[in-house]
Amino acid sequence: MFELVNSYIDSLALFLAILFIQGMSFRKIRQYRPNWFQNGGRRLFLSILLGVYYGLAGIYFIYEGAYENNPVIYTNMRILILMVTSVFGGRAPLIFAYLVMLFGRISFDIASPVTSRYVILMTLIFAACLLVTFWKKQRFSRFVALIILNFPAILYYFVNNFDEGRILQGFEIIEYFLLFFVTALLVFYACNYIDKSNLVIQNLTETAMTDSLTNLPNMRFFTQQFGWIFAKSQKRKKSLSLFIIDIDHFKEINDFHGHQAGNTVLAQFSSILKNRTFPPRTMFARIGGEEFAVLLQNVGTEQAALIADFFREEVERAKFPYNPASGKVTVSIGVASASSNFSTTESLFEAADQALYQAKQNGRNQIAVHQGELE
Q1: Rounded distance between C-alpha atoms, residue 95 and residue 51, angstroms
Q2: pLDDT digits (tens, 9 = 90+) for 317-326
Q3: Tens digits of per-residue pLDDT, 130-185?
Q4: Which residue from 193, 93, 78 is spatially nearest to 139, judged by alpha carbons?
Q5: Which residue among 118, 202, 220, 316 is buried most deeply as judged by most CB within 10 Å?
Q6: What is this structure's pTM?
Q7: CB atoms within 10 A of CB 109
């Protein structure tokens, strides 16, 4: 019994390490590639990657079970992999994890009748897991349902000759099933903890990186992403354009209507910005007061100038509940493009800022394009 518990502890520690590595990896992906979780194609890729990862972990347990004295433990770990993947990952990761594990088992010993039995066992487990993915209940309810649904398949495994004469009898069956049940609960709570921790960190990060009034990214997030996008565009020799937008006569709105009116104008302006159709992978941010930044990937100077002017006209046509004393709400926009061979993010930002200053000096409600490279 003591040796059995030790083997379970060892295999459980390995399983938790697998969970931890996956959790940390997805946290980093969410931090540096947040759009991957919104984009349909990228999200599917991550689902497949998750399934392959757990499938490879299952293959590892297959080989461990073949060479260790207690293959039951490692078979139970493979069952838990499918259960965890279905409850926390979903249908696509479950299917790919099952296919990878199936391929690993068949390639290990294709002609053996033991392999056929294992294929039947894992297929029964997979069918139960797939069924539960359609059940719209809380995770714990689905996990408990899986334990109940998988009990006949696990019992079938315990009382049949899978591994060279090893058949469990009497108290052994109860002993192994209780250990499996306890391990399953520990794995579930570990997965749940990792998932909720990642969600809390994600929410804290988003709060720290988001402007509370407009729900746009703030200057901190913009600076972080700007550096990464700029470096990528330089490396790939792709165009990158930057707008800096300033709401004209915004101080007059605050002075004549109050700061709450100014906040209302900022919120409506940000809605116009978010709902405007920009090229793919465009990033917006409120960078301070009434100033906003728009970063457009794979967009050159001429196209950027056209997009900026169309947006300026759209704002001019919009009806705001509060207007400055001098007239309607309008914007001035400074445009600069990295195709002009700016060497740093600071120089590109300064160029767009200088163009914005020029637009305001020329009478506001217009765009200005920076010409040439900053010295």
Answers
A1: 7
A2: 999 999 998 7
A3: 999 999 889 999 999 999 999 988 888 887 777 655 667 778 888 888 888 988 99
A4: 193
A5: 118
A6: 0.69
A7: 13
